[in-house]
UniProtKB/TrEMBL annotation:
Signal sequence range: 1-20
Gene3D superfamilies with a match to the protein in the record: Porin
Keyword Signal among UniProt keywords: yes
Pfam families listed in its UniProt record: Porin_O_P
Signal in keyword set: yes
Protein name: Porin
Source organism, top-level taxon: Bacteria
Organism: Candidatus Polarisedimenticola svalbardensis
Keywords of the record: Signal
């Protein structure tokens, strides 16, 4: 697996040489954290996207009992991607992550970009869904996405269509499963679709008002015996306390999401609500869960958040000046994985997260998060942990992008 990933990555790096036709001068330069090689006419381009995230977390609980996860260090991400554009009409990406001494393929896709403000993409990529999920990990305001993120299906192999204008975005796609899914089980892949729309009636460099909507409909994965599980945490080092366990006899499930976000110069806010509905077979009662998050961010000096209408998401904070940029943020998030009528007691959790980010330059960021989690009496990790055991977490990240 590792050899295949490395060979594929090398082939993408060399692709402009192999398929470029006539020899062409390529300028190499640095652009806001990326190493870029671009033709004179700008129609052929490729660039490297690398990121290293090293985390430390200290976790304590009210009970003082062992949580199954010790405080300490971890390599959260060590990722390398090559992204390409050929002749101004075709684009592609290959992205792999090395963490826990294992290689995992993330994005690999090709797309046609020859139409104005349009991308048609095929390959392994994220299903159109919530703003938080689609935002790159290198640009997240907090170290991890919120508790609500359990409802997102992530990356799958499929085809999608994106189109945008000055103040709107529409996205849709039809997807199977992750790479190699279903091969060992000898079953057909589960299929589904994702839709997302965003509207920004105010969209300037300093002021943004964003509304969004998403809807996903998927079948349980091949080989899952028609079971679906939701579980979540707000730091990768944490245990997954709210956990539904395997809910059986599921024919399909739907995820509905709404988004509200905005910016006023140095101040910004972002919020989402998602609801999951499981349709079950053989007379089993349907199940429903939901969650939300909301946060506010303030950058007192050095820069501000950037918004992109072509993806309906937030991008980099590019610091200005020798002091870099400082960001303060506060987030509240909730997930409720209880549905007593359906016999599911997955637990409910509320989190408050305080974040402090220092952007030293376009490449270096240091992050501090303090997380206070309040678990209910059913949040026991499907029986693996003590119920109603509230957590205090202190976490830091050292992030390098290149």
């Amino acid at each position: 697996m590792r050899k295949v990933a490395l060979i594929t990555l090398l082939s993408l790096v060399l692709a402009p040489v192999a398929f470029g036709g006539e020899e062409e001068e390529m300028a190499v330069f640095h652009d806001k954290g990326y190493l870029v090689s671009e033709s004179e006419d700008g129609k052929t381009k490729y660039w490297v996207d690398g990121r290293i995230m090293l985390d430390y977390g200290d976790i304590s609980s009210d009970s003082g009992e062992a949580l199954g996860v010790a405080s300490g260090w971890e390599t959260r991400r060590a990722r390398l991607a090559v992204k390409t554009i050929f002749n101004g009409e075709w684009a592609g990406e290959f992205d792999m992550d090395i963490a826990d001494n294992e290689v995992e393929i993330k994005d690999f896709w090709m797309s046609y970009i020859g139409f104005d403000n349009t991308i048609v993409k095929i390959g392994n990529h994220k299903v159109p869904t919530s703003q938080e999920e689609l935002t790159s990990s290198r640009h997240l305001t907090f170290m991890e996405r919120s508790l609500m993120n359990t409802f997102n299906v992530g990356r799958r192999i499929g085809v999608s269509y994106n189109r945008w204008g000055e103040k709107y975005l529409v996205m849709g796609g039809y997807f199977g499963e992750e790479p190699a899914a279903g091969e060992d089980e000898g079953e057909d892949e589960a299929m589904g679709f994702g839709l997302r729309a965003a509207f920004a009636p105010i969209n300037t460099d300093d002021n943004v008002l964003h509304f969004g909507f998403s809807y996903n409909d998927f079948e349980p994965d091949a080989g899952s015996d028609d079971e679906v599980r939701f579980r979540t945490r707000e730091l990768h080092l944490m245990p997954r306390f709210p956990n539904t366990g395997n809910v059986d006899m599921v024919s399909d499930y739907q995820i509905l999401g709404v988004e509200l976000a905005g910016q006023m110069g140095a101040w910004s806010f972002q919020s989402e609500y998602m609801k999951a509905d499981l349709t079950r077979m053989a007379g089993a009662p349907d199940a429903s869960y939901d969650g939300y998050y909301a946060f506010v961010s303030w950058i007192p000096f050095g820069g501000q958040r950037t918004y992109s209408m072509d993806s309906g998401e937030w991008g980099a904070v590019n610091p200005k000046g020798k002091r870099g940029a400082l960001e303060l943020a506060l987030r509240a998030s909730n997930v409720n994985l209880n549905d007593f009528d359906a016999g599911v007691e997955g637990g409910e959790a509320d989190n408050i997260t305080l974040g402090l980010n220092w952007y030293a330059n376009d490449h270096v960021r240091m992050m501090f998060n303090y997380i206070k989690q309040d678990n209910d009496e059913f949040a026991d990790g499907d029986g693996d942990f003590l119920p109603d055991d509230d957590l205090d977490i202190i976490a830091v990240r050292f992030q390098l992008t290149f």
